[in-house]
Automatic annotation (TrEMBL):
Its EC number is 2.4.1.-. SUPFAM superfamilies: UDP-Glycosyltransferase/glycogen phosphorylase. PROSITE patterns: UDPGT. This is Glycosyltransferase. It comes from Aquilegia coerulea. The keyword Ribonucleoprotein does not apply. The keyword Glycosyltransferase applies. GO terms for molecular function: UDP-glucosyltransferase activity.
Length: 411
């Protein structure tokens, strides 16, 4: 299809796994269509992503040296290196890379730059004759609500850029995208679609394939809260105790909670012995997309970060959501009340915390045979996943984005 798609796009995502990953997925899809990419990335973080660059002849990483900011641990360069309360310092460090970015843009001369948190990009880009596109890794729904877009840098970024982009589909968030287009004086709005990596040529690590393979179809609960979330110790314990109470086998992937160096030291007393052979709590990276599509996994308990949200939407798992911060609350509201494909875990009115009983209740609600709500969310989820996985959907969104970028460059 795409006519003259030989333009050159620079990518500058926020220094976080959950942002770099979808930007790189989009880069791979653009590169498949012949588009050249210059991809800004913190220098040590690059190592974690080299293998995900599927078109190294077209996608060039531009490593950035992230300056140290007082209060950050030495060498910290992405949000997964720090607790969520310190991510504002990573934002300050990101702002300090402006000179490096400007020099690279002058040298490589891209036609367009995609960015999210670096609100100064439109000004720099404009001075160099480069079009800037604010591309949010969250959907249109979370940028619709003031609680999120009050963040000044995002408002400036959206106002100053030449176009807006969202990881979203008309099928799910059409009205929100239209609203944003109106709000921002009819700026072009690009929807990227679900941006799934579909790792068809990779297989699940033997250790997990074997472990999961030991359980009945659809019986295992997989629980993971993305790359950033660090729970309070009490919440971490309530979560695993709630999973234990369900009596179902479970695989939990979490970072150690606040104040703990390891997961083991934070587990409730006697927990490991009680769940041995049936439950695992793991701190290392796992292949989430492959786990979610494993036949033994029947339920996903997650934080509703945007990457996990899309991955879970195209899975056949029943969905239980426990949002922790930022867009995760709006994503959860959208999934439970808007799309009606998931349930959330109740929180106590007095302090907003969840309990083991709440976790247990929500999992049982979707997993118990004969549960009316469980059947309702399963049916809605199945209907939506069929649409999202339908042939041609991804091609439609990516090609459409490229057409809009082409228009942006020629008008
Ligand atoms: O062991 C792991 C842990 C995570 N992942 C993957 O890492 C990504 C995590 O992304 P996401 O689900 O979006 O979570 P976060 O990393 O927490 O994402 C941050 O960025 C998102 C996009 O802006 C926001 O929606 C979230 O709130 C914010 O926490 C997903 O693709 C997961 O499959 C793995 O493959 N293995």
């Amino acid at each position: 299809m795409v006519m003259d798609s030989k333009f050159h796009v620079a990518m500058f995502p926020w220094f976080a796994m959950g942002h770099i990953t979808p930007y790189l997925t989009l880069s791979n899809k653009f590169a498949e269509r012949g588009i050249r990419i210059s991809f800004f990335i913190p220098i040590k973080t690059q190592r974690k992503f080299n293998h995900l660059n599927l078109h190294p002849h077209l996608i060039q990483f531009i490593p950035l040296i992230v300056p140290h900011v007082d209060g950050l641990p030495l060498g910290a360069e992405s949000s997964s290196d720090v607790h969520v309360e310190k991510t504002y310092l990573i934002q300050q460090a990101l702002d300090l890379t402006q000179d490096q970015v400007q020099i690279a843009l002058e040298k490589f001369k891209p036609d367009i730059i995609f960015f999210d948190f670096a609100h100064w990009i439109p000004t720099v880009a404009r001075s160099l004759g480069i079009k800037s596109v604010f591309v949010s890794t969250s959907g249109a729904v979370t940028n619709f609500d003031n609680r999120i877009s009050l963040v000044n840098r995002l408002l400036i970024a959206m106002k100053e850029s030449d176009a807006l982009g969202f990881r979203a589909c008309h099928e799910t968030e059409g009205p929100f995208a239209d609203f944003l287009k109106n709000q921002y004086n009819n700026k072009p709005v690009l929807l990227t679609g679900p941006l799934l990596t579909r790792t068809s040529n990779t297989i699940l690590e033997e250790k997990w394939a074997k472990w999961l393979g030991g359980f009945e179809k659809g019986s295992v609960v997989y629980c993971a809260f993305g790359s950033e979330c660090v729970l309070q110790k009490d919440q971490f314990q309530e979560l695993v105790l709630g999973l234990e109470q369900t009596g179902l086998p479970f695989l939990v992937r979490l970072r150690p909670p606040v104040g703990a160096d390891t997961l083991e030291e934070a587990l409730p007393e006697g927990f490991e012995e009680r769940v041995r052979g049936k439950g695992v709590v793991h701190g290392g990276w796992v292949q989430q997309e492959l786990i979610l599509s494993h036949p033994s996994v029947g339920c996903y308990v997650g934080h509703c970060g945007s990457g996990s949200m899309w991955e879970s939407l195209v899975s056949t798992c029943q969905l239980v959501l426990v949002p922790n911060f930022g867009d995760q609350f709006l994503n959860t509201h959208f999934m439970t009340k808007g799309l009606k494909v998931a349930v959330d875990v109740e929180r106590r009115e007095e302090d907003g915390w969840f309990t083991r009983e709440g976790v247990h209740k929500a999992v049982k609600l979707v997993m118990d045979e004969g549960s009316e709500l469980g059947e309702e969310v399963r049916a809605n989820h199945l209907k939506l996943s069929r649409i999202l996985l339908s042939e041609g959907l991804e091609t439609f969104y990516i090609n459409n984005c490229i057409l809009k970028l082409h228009d942006l460059l020629t008008t």
